[in-house]
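Structure (tokenized):
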């Protein structure tokens, strides 16, 4: 019998609380039979849905990592109904390095869920999540932030899918999370991201962006935890604590390619708008300066669409193609429901 190169130490069929490792074979000079030990927790109690909670796809996105770390430490398995799978540091090499991508292979885990998986540590992690864990799940919640290069307003996110039943269930779950911004995107992602893998397996996909800028922000962490525990309550897996029960006002939003502003050249980026600002098409967005060529006039930037500034670049220096702004456009709740109803 041949041995697998990726395996899970916790028993996925057992009841109770288990905290262990998913091991990815990684043979290198200093450790010929070594592994990457990815922390993995399983909480199971009786009948009920299975949810995968994941953070650390990108190692420099900290709010989700800490929210799930705290959940693993504190969760009383006797209080749940169903099963919770927890990956607080999914791309462990990137998490330990505090980098978006893995220092072992340059892999971006949330761009590794395509039609084929690369034979690299990051590709093997993606394959295990998509082919071994997701088929066990009813729901996936994948937690993100803007990372080192971007600051992101806290928001929940859902890929609604092209199926009207799944879309309606997903939107109901998104509403239940009750984030300040509820970002509902129609259809199935074209990019090789985790949401695409989940929907291919018939799994509801929910996500969120919570802060960024290469640091952990307490307010964004609070929103992330609010979304986690309200979702678990909505699914009937875990009754939420009193601190999460109060409803807050939410705005439903979406985006298109016109909502992005990219750097046309190299230089120092001076923004003229901040996260949360409401801007209009044609409005001045910022400047790019060239301190190395102080006699050159700065390059003016303008927004290509109306919207709410959801993302700004956190780094001062930029190169051509860097994302400087990302807007989200508000839409009525009724418009989202009408779009779901129109699915066939």
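Design, position by position:
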């Amino acid at each position: 019998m041949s041995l697998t190169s990726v395996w899970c130490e916790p028993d996925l069929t057992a009841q109770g609380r288990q905290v262990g490792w998913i091991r990815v074979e990684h043979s290198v000079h200093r450790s010929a039979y070594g592994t990457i030990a990815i922390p993995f927790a399983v909480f199971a109690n009786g009948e009920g849905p299975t949810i995968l909670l994941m953070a650390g796809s990108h190692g420099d996105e900290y709010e989700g990592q800490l929210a799930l770390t705290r959940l693993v430490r504190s969760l009383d398995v006797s209080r749940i109904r169903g099963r919770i799978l927890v990956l607080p540091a999914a791309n462990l090499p990137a998490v330990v390095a505090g980098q978006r991508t893995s220092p072992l292979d340059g892999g971006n885990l949330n761009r590794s869920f395509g039609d084929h998986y690369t034979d690299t540590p990051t590709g093997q992690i993606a394959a295990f999540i998509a082919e071994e864990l997701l088929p066990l799940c009813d729901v996936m919640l994948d937690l993100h932030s803007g990372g080192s290069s971007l600051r992101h307003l806290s928001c929940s996110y859902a890929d609604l899918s092209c199926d009207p039943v799944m879309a309606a269930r997903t939107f109901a779950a998104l509403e239940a999370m009750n984030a300040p911004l509820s970002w509902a995107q129609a259809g199935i992602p074209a990019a090789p991201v985790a949401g695409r893998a989940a929907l291919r397996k018939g799994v509801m996909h929910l996500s969120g962006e919570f802060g960024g800028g290469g640091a952990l922000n307490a307010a964004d962490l609070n929103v992330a935890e609010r979304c986690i525990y309200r979702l678990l309550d909505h699914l009937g897996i875990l009754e939420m604590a009193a601190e999460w029960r109060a409803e807050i006002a939410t705005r439903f939003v979406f985006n298109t390619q016109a909502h992005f502003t990219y750097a046309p050249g190299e230089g120092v980026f001076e923004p003229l708008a901040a996260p949360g600002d409401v801007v209009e098409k044609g409005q001045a967005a910022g400047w790019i300066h060239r301190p190395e060529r102080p006699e050159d006039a700065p390059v003016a930037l303008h927004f290509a669409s109306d919207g709410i500034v959801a993302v700004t670049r956190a780094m001062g220096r930029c190169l051509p193609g860097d994302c400087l702004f990302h807007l989200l456009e508000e839409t009525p709740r009724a418009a989202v429901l009408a779009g779901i109803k129109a699915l066939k």
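Reviewer-requested clarification: The longest strand covers residues 35-45. The CA atoms of residues 275 and 309 lie 5 Å apart.
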